Amino acid sequence: MKFxxxxxxxxxxxxxxxxxTEPGRALWSGTLQINTTQLAGDxxxxxxxxxxxxxxxxxxxxxxxxxxxxxxxVSGSHYKQVxxxxxxxxxxxxxxxxSAFVRKYWGTNNWRIYAGGGIGGSLDQYRQEVYDAATSxxxxxxxxxxxxxxxTQIGGxxxxxxxxxxxVSTNSTIFPFTFSxxxxxxxxxxxxxxxxxxxxxxxxxxxxxxxxAGRFTVGASVVFSGSKEDVNLRTFESQSLIAAPxxxxxxxxxxxxxxxxxxxxxxxxxxxxxxxxxxxxAPYVRAYLSNTxxxxxxxxxxxxxxxxxxxxxxxxxxxxxxxxxxLNAGLAYLIGQNFIAEANLLNLNVSKQTQNNELKNGxxxxxxxxxxxxxxxxxxxx
Length: 382
Hints:
This protein has helices at about 1-20, 195-200, and strands at about 25-40, 45-65, 70-85, 90-105, 110-130, 135-160, 165-170, 185-190, 215-220, 220-230, 235-245, 245-250, 255-260, 265-270, 275-290, 295-310, 315-335, 340-355, 360-370, 375-380. It is mostly beta strands.
């Protein structure tokens, strides 16, 4: 009897994975980002600059036949810079894009690979407004550009459950194909086939132990890059490091508190030597909202960082410091018994940057980001 039950459950999982790319299912992914920057100070002659920015993209596909999907992608962005008082320059940039595509999927179980292509276009408009104080004349310049081109795409999907999947893809406007970069993100599936409704009722949830009280987490993101160039018998070198080690502790089941230490460093050596350093402290809290392996979370982070600059032969100078807070939400997936992979899907942040000088210049930053193409992080739990 035990063998029969195990076999039946395995068959249900296989049927569930096949149903991901059947008629009746649809795929969604997208990004929304809203940022506002306000710069104010006593120099020059008292000024205020406001720079709102909006960026979005939506991708939607419908499976018309088994493993065949027809999709549509819409994107847009808008940037506006408005200067008050004595700075006589305003500018505005708007872009819209639309594309249609077809994909063919292959694979079984939770894995799929796909290839496809389509045609896409974009329209860009740039407007600049200039005020001449000497003549009291305000002039305006406009530039419109458009582009239409076919494209091909390949990628792969790993379905985490009946709704969420992780996708890696790349596009090319050159045929047959030229890789130009990979994009990783999450997709969300809507719709259900008739067999899936029976499968969902018969499939028990899986539970991971990573989020139990008393367990510690460690994680880090590290990116190092460097370059060296010889020009006219002169060597130019540069290196940069971006890192954020983190340590957390589950004070209760599904409730994590921790501390991250974001660090950035860069060095440039050529005609002269310069180095830039930023060091911060970011305590955070996070609450996981279910007991399955794939679980949503919400959290908050407070960040303080200081930025300094050095150019030989001058001494090191602290330029500014920034304090701010972020509310975030996302999805976590518990891998085995010792790893948590996370995708941050929503951020709402505000921060204030203060310069260390006598001009009383300050910079306010506010932003909202909703995306299915986030930065992924992995934590080790012990």
